[in-house]
Amino acid sequence: MVYAHVAHDCLVGHHTIFANGATLAGHVEVGDWATIGAFSGIHQFCRVGVHSFVGGYTVVTKDVLPYSKTVGNRACIYGVNTLGLTRRGFPPERVAAIRRAYRVLLQSRLNTSEAVARLEASGPESEDVRVVLDFIRGSRRGVILKRHSRHHASEEP
Fold it and tell me: Whole-angstrom Cα distance, residue 44 to residue 40?
């Protein structure tokens, strides 16, 4: 789309979507089937995983996990990109396995290394979970695991 920018030495996968003004700095890697929303910026040397969704106006300074929904300035993870996966024909069992892995990564109160170790110890449920674990292990900048807070300061008593 108009004004999308892909800087030097980027690797862009197949079937990707870049909305208006989506911007990649140098040396960014974008996996197959990823979507990058309007006016989002991806910091240099970051990776965007396969089948992930980066919402509009998002600022990405760490790696975006495969199969995830990531939105905000600074980016927060909102969970699994279930709508995108369903639209691409992922069966419910496959999506459920990804969701179970994300539950350990995002809700177990373990640090990233401990969560990966727990998922490894139980044996990755599926090839999709293996993709997520390999992606995390291969990260040089770290991965976005910060969750969006549902509570805002204006809602506090």
Answer: 13
- To the question of pTM greater than 0.85 for the whole model, the response is yes
The catalytically annotated residue of 26, 32, 138, 148 is 26
- Which residue in 8, 15, 134, 142 is the catalytic one? 8
Q: Chain-wide mean pLDDT for the chain? A: 94
26 tagged catalytic: yes
Residue 9 is a catalytic residue: yes
Q: Is 104's pLDDT higher than 80?
A: yes
Contact at 8 Å (CB) between 46 and 27? Answer: no
128 is catalytic: no
Domains of the chain: 5-81 (2.160.10.10), 84-137 (1.20.1180.10)
